[in-house]
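Write out the 3D structure for:
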Amino acid sequence: MELINQHTKKIMEGCKERARDFGLRFEDETLEYIVTNKDLIELSSKHMIPTLYDYWVNDIEVLKEKGRYELYPNNPYETVINTRPAISFYNDNNPDWLNVMIFYHVLGHIDFFQNNMFFKHTRDEDFAGRALSDKRSIAMLRSEKGRWVDYVIEFSRSIDNLVGFHGVLSELNRSRETKPSARLDFYFDIFLQSIRKVNIVDYLKEIDRYNEAIRQYGEMAERLFFSQVARTYPEFEALFERHKKQGGGQARDLLEFLLLHSPFLQREENRWMQSVIEIVRKTSLYFQPQIRTKILNEGWASYWHEKLFLQDDRIRGNEVGFARINALVTSLPRVGINPYALGMRLFSHIEEMADKGRLSYDFQRLQNAGQRRDYDKATGSGLGHIFRVREDYDDFLFINSFVDQQFVDRHKLFVAGVRLNADKGTREYYVRSREAGQYRQMLLDQLYHPPHIEMDKSRSEDNCLYLNHLFEGKPLVKEFISNTMIGIEYLWGGPVKLETSEPIEKAREFDPRESHPPADMEPSHRRVVYTMKNRQLSRTLL
């Protein structure tokens, strides 16, 4: 692995100047490396971070990727990682015109990393440098503790998808002047929701009452607000004082809860495990926004590589080569999702809608099809609007806000179904729906959405940790429950209970020739409790 030569670096700097002319914003310093296929295989298991800590699974991934490459050789055009400065990797056999296209794509990613609000917590440090420090710490611990370090890493990684990503963002997005006090946090986040368990209407009334106090009394608002709380809930102050004595705020996720409250980790001989768990947790938090903005991020980079490349005079004579490669990257599949293609077309759709003023309330209330078709206010605000989308949205908001019937119809999108063809004895795809709502829901169902697990202290007795899965329609994967709970039991140092929901199907068998289950086969769910004690798993119906 080596830095690109000066000739190629000059091409990159030229791409930066043109990208900035169109409004992209990014730091001046970037690092570009030439990598071989072997380098890419070894880096892929570490999320392309050369300094990321070593772990035994990395070796397995490298061996697996080597075997896959021998069967299906392919070379990715580029990889860029969100560090300070941004680092990107390229194949060593790219012609100059292809590098122009790739550099524009990379600059789109860097602009996204450095301006999207979901990456806000990644902007204040050099992750590659921190990862190197973490790697050295783990190597030192491994020399002292041996294989136990890898056990702790494995157990921590089994639940690192549960990290409180949105809690971290909410802390960063509160200004110092408006950050609520610990008393307010306890009142709205714990007392009303977990202790009094008020309904949503009463909860919103309390928020309105506090906001009204702020408008009327300014700095005195909180004192006056809680004087009314004391009259309504006399027990509040006593509970708040007990809460402070017990260590204050709630842990934002299971890993943080274990760090703060695990009796096993608090023992002097086990304190070294806390640093390993914290490394795993921080690393997961760093990568959370990337998986939550895949469509948005790749669509933004693809939008700009196409827009800027076609206006760059350095590509003359290579338009056909560009068209071929661009089609491979951004073509829409008939079945499945290509995040590059979907995101790029959705950005173009938003730009056109904003240019014509069709994102306004006046357009939305039009009922006449002809008027909607001819509506064009020529606002010229399309480019500015997609920059704001790039700054404020993640994949969920992006899809939920802008995938409409016009977009689905224009690109001939549909929801595919699978059914059994009894005559041919095969399964076949068919068009289940072309309705925008169903297509949008299909996209949302495929987004990253880890389970929501809460630590229920009220039911944690006799050193037993009680975990409550707040069911959102997606059951846990049964085959992972046992191994994951063994790891939690080890880190907690006692029994662990997990309450969750599992589907129950009706007795009648489902005929596979039917396109989807009949109404009386729709699954209902029941609550069950899994208990892990002494590495033995049991299951109880509630």
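The first strand starts at residue 2 and ends at 3.
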